[in-house]
Design a protein that fits this description.
Layout: H1 2-27, E1 31-35, E2 50-55, E3 68-73, E4 79-82, H2 84-87, E5 92-95, E6 101-103, E7 106-107, E8 110-115, E9 125-130, E10 136-138
Antiparallel strand pairs: 1-2, 1-5, 2-3, 4-8, 5-6, 6-7, 8-9, 9-10
Amino acid sequence: INSNRLTGNANELVAAVQIARSEAIRGNVRTSLCQSGDGATCSNASPWRGWIVFADANGDSVADAAEIVRAGVIEVPVQVLSSASVTNANTRITFRADGLAYAGNNLLEGNLRVCLPVTRPALNVRDVNIAIGGRVAVRAPIDDGGNCNVPGNL
């Protein structure tokens, strides 16, 4: 069951990143994935309790109700932590109309770690990697010894 929780949440985050990218290209508008505690606004709490994808049509970097494309919840005990590059970008993955992920004016390269602080399964971590250029993939499961440590950028 725990392994399925990890895989399911990692796959949901991959889908959210892909939706943000495709919406940015389709709508020719900056689109962001950010963590959210209420499904309506971005927050900077750690670990993530949920997330939203929003197409920032008015360019104010705020998720207005009409701009929200999709939202999701991360069910306890699953935790999602972001690498320093994502955290330094206000815990936001932003795609521009060219389909590339940015942190400010720099191309983003980072990780979202989906984990359970348990030893069963031993492979208690799934890293969702966002490579330079916006390509997203789930890395092979990791044994973090029952811990949920902040991931590295790559």
